[in-house]
Every structure is written in C-alpha cells, then in structure tokens.
Amino acid sequence: MKRKLVAAIGIAGMMVSIAACGSDDKGGGSGKGADAKELTVWLTVDAQNNWPELVKAADDAVTKKHPGLKIKHEYYGWPDKNAKLDAVLATDKAPDVVEMGNTEMLGYMVKGAFAPVDAAKFTGSSAWLDGLKASVTYEGKTYGVPYYAGGRVANWRKDVFAEAGVKSTPKTYQELTADLDKVQKKKGDKFSAWYQPSRDWYAAMSFVYDAGGSIAKEEGGQWKANLSSPESLKGLNAYKAVLDTYMHGDKTKDEADRPIVYGQGKSGMIFAAAWEGATAADPKNDKVGKLADKIENFVMPGPSGKNMPVFLGGSDLAIPVKSKAQALAAEWINAFTGPSGQKGLMAKGNLPNNKTDLATLKNDPKTAVPATAAESNWFVPMAPGWGQVEKAQVLQTMLQSIGTGKKSVEAAAKEADAAIDKVINTK
C-alpha cells in the first residue's frame, strides 16, 4: 500500500458515548436502523480508483434484500480523511460506514467513536489475520471489521549480490548476513549493503518481537513499557548490528523516502512494505536502469531462526456510534468484506483479511512471498495512550540515538520505557 499508516491522535471536540449493541441481526452490528432508507459509506480513493466493481457488488447485495434503500458513497484521500471525519462526528450527520487505516482505529475506539459489533456474525471472522484482528479489538470488544492487508518483505538487487557470488535468496538469517558481508566487502563503505533508516520503527520492532520482546505488556489491566526487557534488548542489539555493519547512509533519517533512495543505486537491499521495491523501479525513481528486472522480493528471515514477524498494515471498516443505520451498515460491511469481496481484493494485488484466503496465495509464485511473510505478524499495543506514544515519536527518538551511537542500546531503551510509561495508560 502506497501510504503510511498513522495513529489517530487527538479527536478534537468529539465527546461521544458507546451505543448499546443488541447484535440480533445477521449483519453483525446492533439492531439499530434496520429499517433505515439511506446508507452513507465513506471509503478512501483506493476503492474508487482500483476496485469500484467490488463496491457496486456490495451495494447490489444489500439493496436486493432492502428494496428502495439508497446507498451514498463519499471518497477521501488519506491525508484529509480524519480531519473531515472528526468534524462530522461532532454533529448528527455521521456516516454509517467509514474506512480506517488499522493503526488509526485505536484513538477512535478509546474515545467511543465506533459502535461495537459481534465479530462472530461476520463471514470468516474466526480466521482474521492476528494483526488486523488486534486493530479492531479494544478492552475485549470488537469495533470494526478488517478489510484488507499489506505486509513487509525483503527486497534485494539480484545483480549486486550476483557480482559478489550470491546466486539465490537466503533461507536463514545467518545466510543473509553472510551474503551481505560479501556485498559490503566488494562495494566498500560508501555503499549500503542493506539500506535501513535508523528511525524505521516498523523494522526495528520486528527484531524486538522476533527475539520474544515487545513494545509494552499488559499486566492487571495496566500497560507497562517492555523495551528494557532482556528479550527486547536482544532484538534491539540485533537491529543495531545491522545499522553498524550494513547501513552507510544518513542515520538520522526515517523510511519516508526509502524507495527513492533505493532507486538511486547506492544500496543492495531493503526490508520494507511490499510495494516499495516496485516504487523504486518506477522510471521516475530508477537511476540504475531497468531496475525492475534486477530486484527480487523474499521472505525476511529472523535471527530467531523463524520468519521475521512483520508489522501488518491495512484497512478496517467501522460503524460510527452516531450512525442511524447500524444494522444496515453491518450488512454492507459483511457483503463487502466477505468471500467474493476478498477474492476481488486479492485479484487487485492486496492481501486478504483472513488466514484461509492468505494460504491460497502461497501457491501462486506472484504472491507467495508477501503471503508467507504476512503469516507471522505483530501489531502495536492496544493501550489507551498508544496514540500519544506515536505522536511523541518515542520509538523513533530511541532508534536514532541507537543508530547514531549517541546512547547505548540499554540507555536508549530505558529512556524510551520511561517516556512510554508516562502516557500509555492515559485516555
């Protein structure tokens, strides 16, 4: 997905309460608004531009059951969607269905903006991908339905590694580092065998979770930072080793322009969102020449000996608590995210919202890598104050200190834990 998912922070002026949920209808939401005459669905331009036929199919399925129902669609770009949503949620004109980036969900769930739903009444919910299921769950209740997913993979320059005598992608982390060592030795210290921006917390936390650590843990209803645990420190030290050994670019940068940097030809590998390799190979970014023919995705192995757990990005669909058509909204979501919808989304290059469909993608060489990588995934702590942690860029600050050598891993982690503990339980 060609977007960066960010947590919803500070929902201005929105003081709403969670509506009661009857959960008697077959759609999965409350019985409220089952006889409504109009349904308003907010989606991003991704759906409008890339799979409008899937939207229409869901409309047709619902209107067939409810003759005379009028379904209105509004489409928004990611940068301005939440500001418009925040404004309308403060009125009585809330949409009935709204698409959210999966890390945007938490802030709205904490504030009570979305109505709870009965997950069991949505087709395929028992097999939802773990990372997406976590994104719609807060304090034991479900407040949305996963829509589709996008994961992270390793991508390397076949030509660069072949020059160093490497002919095939690695199956273990030890093989990977041995291959990287060969490239680094051949290319010298002005070349990044692995271009890994220090502040990229999605990659760094994959190392943490691979080592058995975590950003924070819940104990007795309270969340506590966990970056200083032995397991988390092991992961952070493995990440630092990558930065020290293979990353010879600016160690104060984040990952925002990684595809552009990769396209400039001064690095041999990235660990990134699945779309980034193709973006680097876009003619406007490709300074190598025919880069598309020279790059290859593979499943990132972890130091633990297992596949590296990856951050699972994606979109969810939620029903605002102020919706006057919650039952119909749930029906529409079920039609849109059900088996036929997932099949259509996969045909467009997306990962499905569930493990059953994901398994089928592993049999297709075109989709086997991202599908396999997505099986092992992690998600952010579903704590009430997590949005404040992201807003303060606590993890990025810690990682920059580690990457630049300003602080030791232990000192940087301890400082980050203290900053996290101050806000993570605050609504």
From TrEMBL:
Keyword entries, A-Z: Signal, Transport
Keyword Transport: yes
One family name in Pfam for this protein: SBP_bac_8
GO molecular function: maltose binding
Record GO biological process: maltodextrin transmembrane transport; maltose transport
Annotated PROSITE patterns: PROKAR_LIPOPROTEIN
Extent of the signal sequence: 1-19
Any single Gene Ontology cellular-component annotation: ATP-binding cassette (ABC) transporter complex, substrate-binding subunit-containing
UniProt family annotation: Belongs to the bacterial solute-binding protein 1 family.
Protein name stated in the entry: Extracellular solute-binding protein
Organism listed in the record: Streptomyces mexicanus
Lineage, opening ranks: Bacteria, Bacillati, Actinomycetota, Actinomycetes, Kitasatosporales
